[in-house]
Target: Cytochrome b
Amino acid sequence: MKPDVFHPLARLIHWLMAVLIIAMLFIGVSMVGDLSLRHPLLIDLHKATGLALLVLVIVRLCLRLTLPHPPLPTDLPALQRIAAGASHWLLYGLMLAMPLLGWAMLSAGGYPRPLQLPAIAPHDLQLYAVLRQAHGWAGYLLFATVLVHLGAALMHALVRRDGVLRSMWPGPVRRGE
Model:
């Protein structure tokens, strides 16, 4: 039998990651546009948060694949079901790819990595340039996907009123909701 709501740990990680991802998008944009002395602090914050997100997305994927989760509403049209599944896997892929691209970019550029992590790409400045551009474009795609995800959540909450947003809402869920 499928539950009505996501597991509390899955909900906690979802919302923690949501806050961190939004923060990362702002930090990333600030880093690109900030040439002041705060820039190294932003870079260190970006690296540390990226590493935390990498750990969290791995945990989150494990939870998603092992814990039962609520089904989509039965009256949801087939195309919307497909879009929901595809957009969720795109989010998971981007949430995994972004920190890995950042780690590889730092490795290829010869830059220090958080916690002295090993290099995952050879030191190569041309590869660094490609990875930096890929990291930037993936960030834009992640931002757009997050906006679509937010729009869909609001559509479920405000238009359809079908409980989809409530199933991932943080905190205790009262019976009968």
Q: What stands out?
A: The radius of gyration is 18 Å. The chain has a mean pLDDT of 92. The domain at 8-69+83-168 is CATH 1.20.950 (Fumarate Reductase Cytochrome B subunit). The chain has five helices and no strands.
